[in-house]
């Protein structure tokens, strides 16, 4: 019987997992259970690291959007002296907010 490393799907990340047809003895079954727990922990850790990176990126994006919205609000206040400009500003703000929401939903 050959013990080729046939990839992550069949041998796991470590390459130490037994194939399903090789689990004849209780010792192999126990070691397989321990190895599967290890594999699950590795997968969880990789997922959590990627999740934290993505969460930090979204947090940074939200902070950036908040800063831009504050700037837009200040500009709106300045433009409120001019009714024509204020109407145009409201349209631009709504378009900007729409684009921001699309960015947040797509990432």
Describe what this molecule looks like in 3D:
- This protein is mainly alpha-helical and 107 residues long.
- It has one domain (8-106).
- 77% of the residues lie in helices and 0% in strands.
- It contains three helices and no strands.
- The chain has helices spanning 8-11, 26-79, 83-106.
- It is rod-shaped, with a radius of gyration of 27 Å.
- Mean pLDDT is 77; it is low at 1-9.
Q: How helical, in percent, are the residues?
A: over 70%
Number of separate structural domains: 1
Q: Which shape, going by the Cα principal axes?
A: rod-shaped
Low-confidence stretches: 1-9
* Rg: 27 Å
Mean pLDDT: 77
Distance between the termini: 46 Å
Q: Would you tell me the structural class of the helices and strands?
A: mainly alpha
Biggest sheet layout? none
Strand proportion: under 5%
Number of helices: 3
- Using DSSP, what is the number of strands? 0
Q: List SSEs in N-to-C order.
A: HHH
């Amino acid at each position: 019987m050959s013990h080729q490393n046939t990839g992550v799907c069949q041998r796991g990340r470590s390459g130490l997992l037994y194939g399903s047809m090789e689990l004849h003895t209780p010792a192999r079954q126990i070691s397989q259970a321990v190895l599967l727990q290890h594999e699950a922990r590795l997968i969880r850790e990789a997922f959590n690291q990627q999740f934290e990176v993505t969460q930090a990126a979204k947090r940074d994006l939200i902070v950036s959007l908040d800063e831009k919205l504050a700037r837009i609000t200040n500009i709106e206040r300045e433009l409120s002296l001019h009714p024509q400009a204020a109407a145009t500003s409201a349209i631009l703000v709504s378009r900007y907010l729409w684009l921001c929401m699309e960015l947040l939903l797509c990432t």
